[in-house]
Design a protein that fits this description.
The protein starts with a strand and ends in a 7-residue tail after the last helix. Strands 1, 2, 3, 4, 5, 6, 7, 8, 9, 10, 11, 12, 13 and 14 form a 14-stranded mixed β-sheet that branches. The chain is built from ten helices and 14 strands. The chain folds into two domains: about 190 residues, Gcn5-related N-acetyltransferase (GNAT) (Aminopeptidase, 3-Layer(aba) Sandwich); about 140 residues, Aminopeptidase, CATH 3.40.630. Helices cover about 25% and strands about 30% of the residues. The chain has about 350 residues and is of the alpha+beta class. The chain is elongated.
Length: about 350
């Protein structure tokens, strides 16, 4: 008989076991331990055990679903206006028994009771509260097409496609780099440096990429002034076991309007890749919205190519009989029931 319940402090080893046996594809880190799960999931200040629902058979954990929320507009708190199902998985030998469907139903009910009229399936910026750094690559990008079981299941649950994100990679083992007179001219007049003022001071950023090894880099004029372009570099050490090579992620490429379409974004990417190759890193990854042809063109010109696609799905939930308005929650606030169930020291 299948039973369902919320997260308990003794559950992390079983959740980690499920993570590995479900074989989620190239975009899921493998060989990770409970400490890493603690970093990207359980120790988040907005973690609510009521949103992490487990399925058990004779006491064995055979599946789980994890639902949460994105930030408010200022990225100072979470907002329950839109929910997101970040992960759902069932052990292979227990599939096709309705367990996944029931887990999704319970996750949707959790989100609806907290005021979310709409729900995303597949975490992606900015609705990516959990699993940053261990699913999706350099950042969550929805459910990846390299995980073939995801799309049929989500469609069967009544979700429709919302948007796509392209996963791009560039091998750094080939020491060749894009060239040209324009790039040579930019390189002579600029330098790569790390700004003193961080580009991402928000609370929401600090809970996700801010928990990992990150570095802000900018292409600056040698004569001084504002940067031509900037980017965030994030370490992908959690993927070494899966990919069998060291990688870095490139996020939040920014080029001021007056410097766009002049080659500065491409120059920054080329220079960053040249620099990190010296650190014995052999692969660089970035994500772009599938509809952002300009961003895709910049990365393509710098030697990046698509290797996967992430898809975010959406669904409108049926309204509750009693109205519930979306609320904002302080970063460290949990409901009374949650406070009784959880402490942030995981018991193995």
């Amino acid at each position: 008989m299948v039973e369902y319940r919320c997260f308990r402090n003794a559950d992390p080893p079983d959740l980690l076991r499920l993570w590995h046996v479900c074989q989620l594809g190239r975009g899921a880190a493998s060989g990770i331990d409970i400490d890493i799960f603690e970093t990207v999931v359980f120790s988040q200040p907005y973690f609510d055990p009521q949103g992490l629902i487990l399925a058990t058979v004779n006491g064995e954990v055979v599946g789980f679903v994890h639902a949460g929320f994105g930030p408010n507009h200022e990225e100072t708190h979470i907002s329950t206006h839109r929910g997101v199902i970040c992960a759902v998985m069932v052990a292979p030998k227990f599939r096709r028994q309705g367990i996944g469907r029931e887990l999704m139903r319970r996750a949707e009910e959790y989100l609806r009771q907290r005021g979310a009229p709409h729900v995303f399936a597949g975490a992606a910026t900015p609705f990516d509260p959990f699993y940053f750094g261990i699913y999706g690559g350099c950042q969550p990008a929805g459910f990846l097409e390299s995980d073939p079981a995801a799309a049929p299941f989500v469609h069967a649950m009544g979700y429709t496609e919302h948007h796509r994100r392209l996963v791009l990679q560039r091998s750094l083992q080939d020491k060749g780099s894009p060239g040209g007179l324009r790039l040579m001219s930019i390189r002579r007049a600029s330098k790569l440096c790390s700004p003193e003022v961080p580009a991402h001071p928000t609370w929401w950023w600090s809970t996700r990429p801010g928990r990992l090894d990150t570095l802000e880099l900018a292409l600056m004029p040698k004569s001084g002034g504002e940067p031509y372009a900037s980017i965030t570099v994030v370490g992908l050490d959690f993927y070494v076991h899966k990919w069998q090579q060291r990688g870095i992620g490139l996020m939040d490429l920014s080029v001021p309007e007056r410097y766009r379409r002049k080659g500065y974004g491409q120059a920054l990417l080329v220079e960053v890749c040249r620099r990190i190759r010296e650190e014995m890193i052999s692969i660089a990854e970035a994500h772009v919205d599938a509809t952002d042809t300009a961003a895709f063109g910049v990365f393509q010109a710098a030697g990046f190519a698509p290797i996967d696609t992430g898809v975010v799905y959406q669904k409108t939930l049926a309204p509750m009989l009693m109205s519930a308005e979306a609320t904002e929650v302080e970063p460290v606030t949990l409901g009374a029931a949650a406070a009784e169930e959880v402490s942030f020291e995981v018991v193995a």
